[in-house]
Amino acid sequence: MRLFEMGFEEKAIKLQVKEEKACETKQICLHAFTDLTYVAPIVFLYLLKECYVHGNLKPTKKFRALQQEVHQVLCNSPQPGPATFVAYCLYILPIFGSYCEGFSHLIVSAFHRFLKTAATTGDSLEAKIIAVRLFLDIVEGSIDHDERIAVKILEVFDIKLTDIEKVASQSKAKNDRRFHNVKAFLEQYIFGFIESESYMTAVNLLEHFSIRQSGESFLVKMIEKKQFRAAEKWATFMGKPMLSMLVEEYVDRNKLKSAYLIVKKNNLQQEFPDVHHKYKESALKKLAEKACWDVAEAKANGDRQLVEYLVYLAMEAGYLEKVDELCNRYSLEGFPKAQEHEAIFLQHCFLNLNELGVEDIIWVDELNGLGKATCHIEGSKVVGLDCEWKPNYVKGSKPNKVSIMQIASDKKVFILDLIKLYNDVPDVLDNCLTHILRSPRILKLGYNFHCDVKQLAQSYGDLECFKCYNMLLDIQNMFKDPRGGLSGLAEKILGAGLNKTRRNSNWEQRPLSQTQLEYAALDAAVLIQIFYRVCDHSHTADALDGRNKIEWKSYIVSHMDNPRKSRKESRLRKEPEPEVKDNEA
């Protein structure tokens, strides 16, 4: 055996120096694994255990190495034959205690692999008799093997009901009436697994012995216990009627993907013509709920019925701009126009800029606009921050560069076109945002903003402004387990949520649509109103967090990596913090 793979080489050398007998033991060990002619199963198992115990590799690697070796040595003339040798090993293994289950799996899997390559073992009949007796002893409880090993013994030795009846008849000849009715005896054994909710073991045994007595109630019970793999295997074994029942149960429980896969795999399209379409609609709805409209449209793949369903979802979400876009692209008629309905829909369902007191949205993409925006923001005590970037749906690929950054004051929201400003005036952009983000006089509000900062730093790594910040208050950290994100928090605090249908839209397109601008502005402006409401109304905070008032000042954080600042920045740090009173609105 390749003991050096198991970490024995170094140990063998040490033992040889200390004691000569150790060297002999190593020679016996090597001989035992290369020629099983005169090696008893108990010796083989003992040496196997020693190799595992003293090997210095990780357990998984040791298991695989030994599995490979056992497969090879089964070809080395074990007596009276490889199948019988394995059967005796399985009989003996329980005396090895905690090693029994792992070694049983190891030997059975190695033997199963051996059977695939061997033309015949020459001792299959004798081995099967031993294996049947072993299985019956496991069932009776006189041999302690795991239930999964019992199933594997049946499979690897191809034990059928007739084989068990044959061995049982020999026992009856000796006045042993334990197995008077073998089938009833096995059914009672299997029923025990059903009672203990070991459904997969029960199904494996029922299938192996072709017992079809359990029916609909058994299937429903497995589904209720979420044992779906066992339920599907059982239904497949029972045939088309049970498979149809399984599909119906899945549809009733809205497990449409599972229902669709069963229908497809078992050619049940004629019996369930609508399942595929319902599954596709369910997938589109989940994508729409995540605002992944482009992915949803790609999944529809031009199917007119699915595209119309996607239009319906866009209408339901109030995304009538998307309704118009899809209707125009696929020449659909009979749907309302965005201009006629969207404003009314949004006004009744979600927060709007007028309710938040926002008077102006200002697009900033050139030098003069950036300067004016910076002056206005530096004169504010509290601002809301957010940013957006185009989603990337390619798995494993890097996120796209941050496209825009929103900075809201009480009355205005500035939307900075970071891509254009970075290309045109990177130094000025860096300087302006450094003044804003590091100013100790401006309280910056964000929601999960550390993720935005990380993305900003990755997108514009050579800018210094995103590496440090001062006086940042992450609204998310003020509440325990906020549900529904920023929209859910706005609904709890302000009475209405945010329309998130444009969250995953294309933020790199220019110009942005008016609805995109409004969406972006709302995400920044709502932070200010949530902050003011929490500070001003203690009962709101009490309802949300179980405290009389949230001490928001304790949640302010700063991240100033570079201790060597310019004199100007040092003076800024010494300026007093902004005086934002708890009742300021």
TrEMBL record:
Alphabetical list of Pfam families matching this protein: DNA_pol_A_exo1
InterPro entries to which the protein is assigned, alphabetical: 3'-5'_exonuclease_dom (IPR002562), Exonuclease_MUT-7-like (IPR052408), RNaseH-like_sf (IPR012337), RNaseH_sf (IPR036397)
GO biological process: nucleobase-containing compound metabolic process
Stored SUPFAM superfamilies: Ribonuclease H-like
Domain 3'-5' exonuclease, residue spans: 361-539
Region of interest (Disordered), ranges: 562-585
SMART domains listed in its UniProt record: 35EXOc
Superkingdom to which the source organism belongs: Eukaryota
Biased composition annotated in UniProt, kind: Basic and acidic residues: 572-585
Molecular function, one GO term: 3'-5' exonuclease activity
Protein name, as recorded: 3'-5' exonuclease domain-containing protein
Organism: Gossypium armourianum
